[in-house]
């Protein structure tokens, strides 16, 4: 696979991951039923930020843009849930889970690419 094709695939996966993130964060109501295990919702929050962050960075998007963007989205999404979605509630612990996902996305990116510092400026 050529680097250009690999990047297109990663960007396509990124679009899909961000779509899933938006569905999870902005659906009018949380899915009903009992959680599969304690704090399952926090694991979901970590994953919906970890995956897009890692994909964006592995695809070569600059960390100086990706990390602050997803970190800001972590905060904004909870404010929107609390203020604009009547069946949802903003939760500061969800913000912490989201930010943990962003940090873990950076860790995954560094592990996959062998980087020890942030992405080179582009």
Largest sheet: none
N- to C-terminal separation?
23 Å
Q: Give the C-alpha Rg.
A: 15 Å
**What structural category do the secondary elements indicate?**
mainly alpha
- Per DSSP, the total helix count is 4
Quick one: overall form? elongated
What would you note in describing this structure?
Helix 1 packs antiparallel against helix 2 (40-58) and helix 3 packs antiparallel against helix 4. The chain is built from four helices and no strands. The longest helix has 24 residues, at 3-26. 26% of the residues are buried. With 122 residues, the chain is an all-alpha fold. The mean pLDDT is 91.
Can you give keywords for this protein?
single chain, elongated, 4 helices, mainly alpha, 71% helix
Set out the fold topology.
Layout: H1 3-26, H2 40-58, H3 63-84, H4 92-113
Helix pairs in contact: 1-2, 2-3, 2-4, 3-4
Please outline what is shown here.
The protein has 122 residues and is mainly alpha-helical. The protein is built from 4 helices and no strands. Helix 2 packs parallel to helix 4 and helix 3 runs antiparallel to helix 4.
